Amino acid sequence: MTDKTIIVFDGVCNFCNFWVNFVIARDKSDKFRFASLQSEIGTEIAKEAGIDAADPDSFILRHRGKFFTRSSAGLMVARELGYPLKMLYPFMILPQCLRDFVYNLIAKNRYKLFGKSEACRLPSPGERAKFL
Predict the structure, then answer these.
(1) Where are the domains of the chain?
(2) Nearest to residue 39, comparing CAs of 123, 109, 125, 126?
(3) Confidence band (pLDDT; 50, 70, 90) for 2?
(4) Which of 19, 30, 34, 103 has its Cβ near the most Cβ atoms within 10 Å?
């Protein structure tokens, strides 16, 4: 597939797409590739990670052959984006159940708060190489 770090996200979620754009704008080292959970590749990665692709409340990070989800995935992305975002990584010491409680509150309400698109995000011509 790729040796890059892969982020699998809910392609119809406006909040998720905001964060994809945020990461792309700060990925100066070209570390990340993206796949929507609704895509064939996204579904395949979800299956490898033991995640039900029909449950779009999680995003998945595949980093160096390991899978991270929910708050752990978000903190790993922050670490990989470098300073100052990597300063969030120490929150990893908090119990995962506590971190994921906050993550789940946002995930369960993201469509109500930020809306939902009718179709998955289409990358611009300049971004196409970043999407699987």
Answers:
(1) 5-116
(2) 123
(3) low
(4) 34
